[in-house]
Amino acid sequence: MSAEKLVVIGQGYVGLPLAMRAVEAGLDVVGLDVDADRVKRLASGESFVEDIPTDRLGRALGSGRYRPSTEYTDAEGFDICVITVPTPLRDGTPDLSFVEQAGVGIGPYVRPDCTVILESTTYPGTTEELLRPLLESASGLTSPGDFHLGYSPERIDPGNPTWRLENTPKVVSGVDSVSLARVQGFYQRLVERTVAVDSTRVAELTKLIENTFRQVNIALINELTMLSHHLDIDVWQAIDAAETKPFGFLPFRPGPGVGGHCLPIDPCYLSWQVKRRLGRQFRFIELANDINHEMPEHVAQRIMAGLNRAGRAVSGARLLLLGLAYKKNTGDMRDSPAVDVARRLQALGAEVHAVEPYAEAHQIPAGVTVVGLTEREVRAADAVVVVTDHDSFDYDLVVRHARYVFDTRNRCVGEMVETL
Ligand SMILES: NC(=O)c1ccc[n+]([C@@H]2O[C@H](COP(=O)([O-])OP(=O)(O)OC[C@H]3O[C@@H](n4cnc5c(N)ncnc54)[C@H](O)[C@@H]3O)[C@@H](O)[C@H]2O)c1
């Protein structure tokens, strides 16, 4: 008997790890992506996702059971299809066009008894109200009944060596009990634990609760940090102390703002839907967005004040930014607050140099000079700014040679260090 055929639509941070895991579990996998360059690189064994080392991709290709492709015709005869395409915002509102295109693309290949699963983060109702009609009209089949349909939110945390796809519990749902059984059965082959919920809407909301919880708590700590600065209290020490309480407290740490494809975006999917369906504002989300958006400006102002105290102006100053990615140990610069900080400092007249070992050249913001983290660079800088605290940075070198460090991550200790 031939292996089951899985199609993963979207071969990015979410889709590629899923495809690799499925190959390892014995499935035949087509990795579909509209980005021809990405597909070409994957086919030649080049991984651009940090969590997928080249040798793991090489083994998948070598097994003959992983085929990256740009052609939806390669989906012909699939048993299971998982959609992992982007769900960004356009002018502040959800942009479901990628999910729609994926639905239209895969619809003609939907056949009786196959299973389609949406993983992209989205507002409750998307699977049944938006995706299902597209699949039904393209295939002439219905779900529930002819084919199976479900939603399973992604919990991938790029760069996290502890919690990987296989050991992070996976929430699963279906449009009926048969669909749920199919969706759950599929993921049970890939992950250690699945958690079934009653409906696709509950599963869709689960993901938004997780990200809204983080976004709101980060905003709370960020606001507290800005206020503590004026009160002259060390907020970092207070959080460390609060963390010793063994119940009822979860620590969140301040930072230069939120970035990436999740926290600045996903909660807006929820607030947009609440507004649309109920005509009401989701106040926590709006407030958290405002506070988190303020952070890059706060960082720029603090650096300006720090230079000023040393009798230097930000205009004409040479600044060395450590990290441009939104998250440590990754090269993901989507919506990175570090880029916002760099632009604000440039607008104030600073010459910005940056160390970003994970990013590719085309991602670097205009006017920013990429350099290595060397004694010479550190000495030449009027200020070193720790924006993204990659573990690979030599923080001892920084404190040994810097004149002034503005540290948004609390990684450096020394007399010349000012912490966010
Ligand atoms: N990156 C994360 O850490 C993370 C975590 C949890 C959830 N998510 C969610 O998962 C989804 C995917 O995110 P990602 O980070 O993997 O995005 P990504 O941009 O890394 O990858 C998405 C891929 O989909 C491709 N694509 C777009 N439209 C397509 C189409 N019609 N057909 C085929 N391929 C298409 C793109 O070319 C891209 O390569 C989003 O909804 C995101 O919110 C992401």
Structural account:
The protein has two domains: 5-197, Rossmann fold, CATH 3.40.50; 294-419, Rossmann fold. The protein starts with a strand and ends with a strand. The strands form three sheets. It has an eight-stranded mixed beta sheet, sandwiched between helices. The longest helix is centred in the middle third of the chain and has 32 residues, at 200-231. Helix 4 packs parallel to helix 5 and helix 7 (200-231) packs across helix 9 (266-278). The protein is 40% helix and 14% strand. It has helices spanning 15-24, 36-43, 54-62, 97-106, 126-139, 177-188, 200-231, 235-242, 266-278, 283-309, 337-347, 375-380, 395-401, and strands spanning 5-9, 28-32, 66-69, 80-83, 89-90, 93-94, 115-118, 148-151, 170-174, 194-196, 318-322, 351-355, 369-370, 383-386, 405-407, 417-419. It has 420 residues and is α/β, with parallel strands linked by helices. The radius of gyration is 23 Å and the shape is globular. Bound molecules: nicotinamide-adenine-dinucleotide. The site of nicotinamide-adenine-dinucleotide has 27 residues, from helix 4.
